[in-house]
Backbone:
């Protein structure tokens, strides 16, 4: 091939160049396409806790047996209509229970107040006993210090007497 034609020469076009020129798109591999994931809903069995372990658990962690009401059963129930006498008795019983609960609340409040007062008195007594204890300590240490100072004075006299002789 002569040198002048060498600059103008073009080799065979690749498949990619041909497709680009003809505006043809590649068909993707079907296996490579993204598909929506279809998963079955997982159904877990209810949690089974061994009875031995249940006995050791605190009450608030123990499994509670929950009864599910059937709507059919609810419809089949008979409505209870009270007679006037029964209604009066029920009302009186409700009144008694409310009075009883009120009394319990007042007792509880009074008990709390008594406990607070008792705690205050206890603190005051503890402070007094601490003060007495401190005072006794002061007296004891003061006496010990006096005794120790006497011993040191007596010891110095003896040492001084032995040096003079």
Residues:
């Amino acid at each position: 091939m002569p040198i002048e034609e060498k600059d103008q020469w073009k080799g065979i076009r690749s498949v990619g160049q041909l497709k680009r020129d003809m505006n043809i798109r590649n068909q993707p591999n079907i296996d490579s396409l993204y598909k929506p994931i279809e998963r079955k809903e997982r159904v877990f069995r209810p949690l089974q806790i061994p009875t031995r372990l249940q006995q050791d658990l605190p009450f608030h962690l123990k499994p509670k047996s929950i009864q599910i009401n059937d709507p059919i059963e609810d419809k089949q129930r008979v409505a209870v209509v009270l007679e006037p006498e029964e209604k009066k008795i029920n009302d009186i019983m409700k009144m008694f229970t409310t009075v009883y609960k009120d009394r319990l609340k007042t007792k509880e409040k009074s008990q709390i107040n008594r406990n607070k007062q008792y705690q205050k008195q206890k603190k005051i007594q503890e402070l007094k006993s601490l003060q007495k204890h401190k005072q006794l300590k002061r007296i004891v240490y003061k006496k010990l210090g006096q005794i120790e100072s006497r011993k040191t004075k007596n010891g110095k006299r003896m040492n001084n007497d032995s040096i003079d002789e």
Remarks:
- The chain has a mean pLDDT of 88.
- The radius of gyration is 50 Å.
- The CA atoms of residues 90 and 129 lie 58 Å apart.
- The first helix runs from residue 3 to 6.
